[in-house]
Design brief:
- 44% of the residues lie in helices and 8% in strands.
- It has two domains: 119 residues, Dna Topoisomerase Vi A Subunit, Chain: A, domain 2, CATH 3.40.1360; 61 residues, no CATH class.
- Strand 5, helix 3 and strand 6 form a beta-alpha-beta unit.
- By secondary structure, it is α/β, with parallel strands linked by helices.
- The strands form two sheets. Strands 4-2-5-6 form a four-stranded parallel sheet, with helices on both faces.
- It is elongated, with a radius of gyration of 19 Å.
């Protein structure tokens, strides 16, 4: 597994499945063109980009570039790294026929092509060092952010405090926190929330 600091954006779940087997980082789907109307997901991508950086790895066809241009115009440019897979003609095994342009998408290209795209983008792949303490579901339970009477209220306030989308699910919130901060910073954020709320006792 190759550890990356930045999160990676892909178009769909098959792309995500492909990258999950080779990259140790947060991988987020745009849901294809659904990203054009999903303001909450775009807000989440913007926040992650500002904190950790974002690698855009969409397909090399017109649709992929349309999504790439949209993200490039919606997220601060200094926070984005564009990685481009080569134009390789072919058909994914799961599909009955090739795409409109006959090109393989991220899910279909060889792993070597993906690694080359990342290398060409100047992404430094670091060997996994001693893993940092990450936020877990158990932490949420212990701190009253999950499983308690007012947990949903506290989560909503924490998301607002961090500038994250309100509709982010609990599991997605934990995943994003694992990408943008370590446990100590997370605990500091919860303590800050507790001080602001007064009645919220951690």
């Amino acid at each position: 597994m190759i550890k990356l600091k930045q999160a990676v954006v892909v178009e769909g779940r098959y792309d995500k499945a492909k990258l999950s087997s080779i990259l140790d980082t947060l991988i987020i789907e745009t849901g294809g063109f659904r990203i054009f109307k999903d303001k909450d997901r775009l807000a989440m991508l913007r926040e992650i980009a500002l904190r950790r950086g974002l690698i855009i790895l969409t397909d090399s066809d017109n649709a992929g570039f349309k999504i790439r241009r949209y993200l490039g115009g919606s997220i601060p440019k200094g926070c984005i790294i564009n990685a481009y897979i080569p134009d390789i003609l072919g058909k994914e095994k799961r599909k009955a026929k090739p795409s409109a342009e006959g090109k393989l998408g991220v899910e279909g290209v060889p792993v070597s092509a993906i690694l080359q795209a990342l290398a060409q983008a100047g992404v430094l792949a670091e060997e996994s060092a001693e893993p940092a303490r990450k936020v877990t579901k158990q932490d949420f339970i212990q701190l009253g952010l999950s499983g308690g009477e007012n947990s949903s209220v506290y989560r909503a306030r924490l998301k607002k405090q961090l500038g994250l989308p309100e509709h982010l699910s609990t599991n997605s919130l934990i995943e994003v926190l694992g990408c943008i901060m370590g446990y100590d910073e997370f605990l500091a954020q919860v303590e800050q929330l507790a001080e602001a709320e007064g009645s919220y006792d951690i």
